[in-house]
Amino acid sequence: MARSEPTTVLAALGFSPSVERTYEQVVRHSGQRLAFVATAMLRSPEQLMTDLGPLLERQIVRVVDDRVHVEPPAQALARLIVELSKVASHAHAELTALANAVPLLAAHAARPAEGEVDDVSPIDGEVSSGGDPRPLIAALIRQSKGDLCWLRPDQWRVNRESHMLEVVRELVASGRRSRAIYPVRVLREAPEIVRARAEAGEQIRVLPEVPTRMFIIGNTHAVVPEPLGFFDEPRTLVRQQGIVEAMGLLFEMMWERASPVPELEQRDGRPDLRAFLLRQLATGAQDEQIARQLGLSLRTVRRRVADLMSELGADSRFQAGAEAVRRGWL
User: Fold this and answer.
1) Alpha helices in 115-156 (DSSP H)
2) CA 250 to chain centre
3) Is 50 exceeded by the pLDDT of residue 268?
4) Ordered strands of the 125-128 beta sheet
């Protein structure tokens, strides 16, 4: 039997005939108190709230401050159309993203057919899990040659810094070099960690953000999480020279963009967030740019700038910079 077409707005929205009848009764009492409406409809307030459930869920009926408010059919329909259009737009965006991911599934299986290439061999490296990372990393460093390059986005939160500090100290004492890039927030979250690494001889620079953990040994080894991120396992150890060299080039590009921390290079001072902020001001950086650089909110940056100017007795940023230089802060 053919399905009948809806003849009312609420029927078109999928409501049952009993809900329609409840709506037709309650709409006459819009704006009245719940107890009054329930009495007028020969129901208890609790029973009325139960009967209004489907309408409350779609917000066609709302109970605010014990008063019942009912949307007229045209207004309810217009609002629901807008809401459904937003849902449809979101669903469209998600479906588009999924569609864009389909070629990636095929890419994993894309390989040269037999006979298309010669001398096929596996890439030198492995993905592994388990074990204590501390002795594994230390052994890998001691058994290899070349300088170390680290990306350290959050390792100061892991309880193995003292062990890795000894590894760095031993490495530098042997004549090898260790360089590390941190996110700038380390200067406020764990200044003692970077100070200790600097005192051990490590060269340190900072960026607004560091996207993943990584360390590279010369041009022979590289270790990264699998997939990239802020965790220890699974981890990929790569010995394939071309890949290691490419990761080394990436580190060098990041090193060039990163900012030195003079207090650490002097070996006798604390990493000073105040001095870092003053240097940003001295370059003419705006508050928004400084906030991004330091990983702070714009409000916090403005407060710190105001505090600095007050401490320096300055009325302008230029005057603050001049006074900071006079005091030897820069």
Assistant:
1) 133-142
2) 21
3) no
4) 125-128, 235-238, 221-225, 214-217, 148-151, 178-183, 203-207, 259-260
Exposed, middle or buried, 253 (CB in 10 Å: 0-12/13-18/19+)? exposed
**pLDDT tens string 120-141:** 788 899 998 888 877 888 888 8
Domains of the chain (ranges; CATH) run 9-75 (1.10.10.10), 125-265 (3.30.870.10), 273-326 (1.10.10.10)
Give this prediction's pTM: 0.53
The total number of residues shown for the chain amounts to 330
Which token pair is 319?
């005057």
Quote the CA–CA distance of 319 and 322 in Å, as a whole number: 5
Q: How far apart are CA 3 and CA 6, in angstroms?
A: 9
Closest CA to 150 of 216, 210, 246: 216
* DSSP summary character for residue 219: T
Unique residue bearing structure tokens 């059919």: 73
151 neighbors 215 (Cβ within 8 angstroms): yes
Q: 241-246, long-range: CB within 8 Å, 24+ apart, which pairs?
A: 243/123, 243/125, 244/216, 244/219, 244/220, 245/219
Location of structure tokens 């400084």: 290
